[in-house]
Amino acid sequence: MAPFLAAILAPMVCRLAGRLSGWVLAGVPAAIFAYLLGLAPAIIPGNTVAVGLDWVPEQGINLSFFVDGLSLVFALTISGVGALIVLYAASYLAGHAHRGRFLGFMLAFMGAMLGLVLSDSLLCLFVFWELTSITSFLLIGFDHTRQAARRGAIQALVITNIGGMFLLAGSVLVHQIAGFWELSALRATGDLMRDHALYGLVLLCFVGAAFTKSAQFPLHFWLPNAMEAPTPVSAFLHSATMVQAGVYLLARMTPVLGGTESWGLILVSFGSVTLIWGALGALKQTDLKQILAQTTIASLGLLVVLIGLGSEAAIAGMVVYFVAHAFYKAGLFMVAGAIDHETGTRDITALGGLADKMPVTFIGAALAALSMIGLPLTVGYFAKEEMYLGLMSGDAASLLVLAILVAGNAMLAAIALIVMIRPFLGPVVPTPRSAHEAPLPMLVGPIVLGGAGIVAGVLPDWLGHDVLVPAASAILGTAVESHLTLALDVTSLLLWLSALTWVLGILVYRQADTIRKLMRRLDGAIGWTADTVFDAAMFGLIRFSGAMTRFLHNGRLEVYLVTVFLALGVALFGPMLAWGGLDWIMPNADLGNWSARLAWPQMQPYEWGVVVLAIAGLLALLMAPTRLIAILSMGVQGAALALIFLLFGAPDLAFTQLMVEVLSVVILTFVMSRLRLSDRDPRPFEDWARDGTLAIVCGAGVSLLLMLVLNGTLNTRLSDLFTATSVPIAHGHNIVNVILVDYRGFDTLGEISVVMGAGMAILALLRRRKPAVPLAAEPPAKPARRRRARKVAP
């Protein structure tokens, strides 16, 4: 609750605290980090901490959370990086009119991600999953005056919400198979999911959800467009929050769905393509944020590959790489933001020699880049060693994946060199703004995160025992041992593979400009991308929606009413005719005895009086000489219906019906007073024939259905339930009111909302006053337009 409460208070804090607002608001995620860190001694040995509240106990749905090694690593990363991002964002947007709102969105985004990784219930996870999509939409489209920002926000929302539907469907299937919602309980089900006939469908749902959220090929294109968000959003989004949600979901579901051939083939194949695609895409860019965004796609593909491999070494590499990536990616994005903030550009071809003017920023960039390259004494080095170790079996498939990982890591190393060298070293290049060092709050993040990547790298025992082992054990469901060490064995193949990665990275760096030109030339030759396909699909959907709207909502009320009553007639008689005549209504009745089924009920004289009143109102309506008499005749019909309710023991309904009819007549008279109520609406014969036929068909259908139901055997289960539970559960003696307020509470709320919306629309129309026209100057009424007579062939 703390992040969401802080999100609500953020605008007020920014107004009251001024320049210190970033430090104040950053205290919230920092306090969460400290609290979670206090749980580490209990989690590291392999224990879990769980808490929950009853949500819908009748359905076994609880608002439950739990902390194990995996969720603790993710939650600490989210809150720790989040504290630095909030501090950075407050300075980055200093003086912005909507800084408080932006920081509120950031804190809500962080709260949604924390809820996601700490959720035990699949439904709870789904709620936070969707909340991350909504908050990221608000952040990406924060600068809503720019079309590119709006487009990027909508694109991210559409793609990730498709994944949300996959997640919801998969969660429901899991519940149907296992009988519960809790992830902690699913881990103990063994091969229940893998042996089930619906395993393939469940796998498709969870993989689809993860691929949309973590931008796997071919659903990767939304992530670079999300760079339209301010840089603090990019730093948080790419390092520790939404894009890592899919990776977390796959890691969490590994004990339940992993270990099969389908699991490995899908994740390794798509992850490998995403890795290479993202790395090549980064080499094609010159904008620092776009370069880093494409490397995020590559890194997410790398994480998915490691999860798909599923070995102990691969999972260990995945955990360490996640930590390393969070450290260096957040730091590098903050560096990119500082460069843009202080120089006015992010284009590496327009930057150079900034090391002298921005020395602290350069140190932060260098520390992060070293970890991204994977040099010794950094966390990135151990991540690379572990992932290579998981592919040392020697079979052809492992060698192929190993070659892909080496190539991908080499290109990522080259990109790290580009980000570290091009803007800071070499000759000084004039920039739009005079370059100078960024403010202190914008320097804390890069230095702390870059330093953390080095400190964790020189403490391999702590990294292995307190980070790797708890998280990897939670993913695999079995105890994992750490073998991280600073010792370098020159005879080890792993060291030589790392050296090969570095050498290839240097070669790619030296040919980066040539590769960029070739990639852009290839893009021009192809002429389309997944992004353009998305645009074409969205524009096609919009055009189709417009065409359907124009067809269905043509502005003629007459067509709408005819369509509604025609559908009602089909709905009444269609099932009777299609499903064996009338057998489905009265399966035990003698269908040949129409007189028994449709016998007119015995009625008292006063009941006949009500029927006569209803018929009189109907005839008065049909023969009404003016509009006013027609409106009043409709009221007679409603009053007759209210009397029927009263006579058959429903005084509440009778009173409600009478009030509705009175108000309807008054409102209609008031609204229609703008027309000439003394006129009669002439109608051509074909309208009479069409509408009369529809009225007779619908009336006969309703009457027939009611008579068949009333003459059949009444099933009183529902009414018995209401009678038995209205007092002890709903605490109401009036069953009708209890049904409306409790049993049909949402239905009643919807009806009230509809009436309220219609009332507001009517009020808006009535408030549109026009200047009064003197009666003497009132133009004569135009004759009603009649339809052109149809030509009849002689």
Automatic annotation (TrEMBL):
It comes from the Bacteria. The chain crosses the membrane at residues 20-44, 64-90, 102-119, 154-178, 198-223, 235-251, 263-283, 290-309, 315-339, 360-384, 396-419, 440-459, 493-512, 559-585, 605-622, 629-648, 654-673, 694-714, 748-766. This is Monovalent cation/H+ antiporter subunit A. It is a multi-pass membrane protein. Keywords: Antiport, Cell membrane, Ion transport, Membrane, Transmembrane, Transmembrane helix, Transport. Residues 689-774 form the MrpA C-terminal/MbhE domain. Residues 60-102 form the NADH-Ubiquinone oxidoreductase (complex I) chain 5 N-terminal domain. It is found in: Cell membrane; Membrane. PANTHER family: NA(+)/H(+) ANTIPORTER SUBUNIT (PTHR43373), NA(+)_H(+) ANTIPORTER SUBUNIT A (PTHR43373:SF1). GO terms for cellular component: plasma membrane. Residues 119-402 form the NADH:quinone oxidoreductase/Mrp antiporter transmembrane domain. Residues 612-676 form the MrpA C-terminal/MbhD domain. Its main location: membrane. InterPro entries: CPA3_Na-H_Antiporter_A, MrpA_C/MbhD, MrpA_C/MbhE, ND/Mrp_TM, Nuo/plastoQ_OxRdtase_6_NuoJ, Proton_antipo_N.
